[in-house]
Structures are given as C-alpha cells and as structure tokens.
Design a protein that fits this description.
This protein is of the alpha/beta class and 221 residues long. The chain has 10 helices and 9 strands. It is 42% helix and 14% strand.
Length: 221
Amino acid sequence: MSHTRNWKLAPMDVLSASPVVPVMVVEEIQQAVPLAQALVAGGIRILEITLRSDAATEAISVISRHVPDALVGAGTVLNGNDLRKVIDSGATFAISPGITSSLLGAANNGPIPLIPGVSTVSELMRGMELEYRHFKFFPAEPAGGIVMLKSIAGPFPHIKFCPTGGISESNFLDYLALENVACVGGLWIVPKGLIKRGAWDQITALAAETVKSASISSRTP
C-alpha cells in the first residue's frame, strides 16, 4: 500500500532535532516566546506545544513567527479538526497520544508530519499499514517502559520511537541508550514553577545540562 505525502519535513527530521522534546503547556501567551527562546538557547530546538490550554494554538503561531531557530509543533492532537487548527497556526509537525484511522488519513493528506502515539504492538502494526515508521510511545512507563521497547525492537527493528510519559531526568538517558529510541519527551525541562516565575535563565541552564548529558552518554561505550 503506497501513500503519497507532501510533508515538508520527514518524521525523522523532527525526532532527530533534539534528544529531548519538551512537552510545553503554555498557560499565558506572554510566556510563549521567552520560553521558546530559553529552550533554543539551551540547545533544544524541537518544541511540542500541547493542546491542553486555551493559549496553545496562539502560542504555536507566535513562536513560529518570532523564534525562527525553533521547530515548533503541536501535541495532544486528537483528530482531523485539531490537525487543521495547528496547521493553520504554523505548526511544523503534530504529535498524537493515540492512533485512529481517520487521524492518520488526515495527516497523510496534510503538509506536516504526524508522530502518532502507540502503546501496543497492535496499534503499531495499524500505523505500519499506512506506512508510518516513527511513533510516540505513550504512556511510556505505564505501558512497559524500557522492557517493552526492547521487546518491540526484535520484530520491528526499523521502527523509531519518542517515548513520553513518566520520563524524567532520572531515567531519560536509559531510554536514549536504546537503538529504537530517537528522542524522549518530557515535562521536567519545562517546570511549571520556573515558567510561572519567568525564570528563563534557569530553563536555559536546565536545557543545556540535559543536552550535555545526552551528548556525553551517546559517546560512552
């Protein structure tokens, strides 16, 4: 089965842009640009704005216009209507927590890549039927975590994942060490308290330390 896509980015372009994808919940629109700038300054250039707040789509729009070094996309995309909204807002990619045939079909006909979420092998195979090869593994820890991803790697060696859900500074390097993990998603590099206080320098430092740790770990035999 072949599906023609006109995506401007390939999914692996998204997943390889940074070792960690910050799962960003922007509550106030004035937070959007300084938060994005802080993360980019720390070496994190792929930004996932989740559709969990009223400011989300506007945040995508202002970041896409004012932070050119960022690859800004949308998370918690649930259906074709959400997908259309985030495309109109300037998102360069979309991430969903789960998988439906209608959402995958809409994404196939759209201009931006979708990273669909899976937590089971059956969902993974449904995505593969539509020629998807890059997935969000969610919720990672409750769905079996590292043990599950190691098991999946056997029969599906060419599939790449971005695990999200229960990922923290204490375990993200263990996930990144897996061959089928391209990056991880998490909230810990965008703490709600630091965002609320506008502690942008601290967020930059946290992002930089995360990138440094991932880089050192990747060079360790």
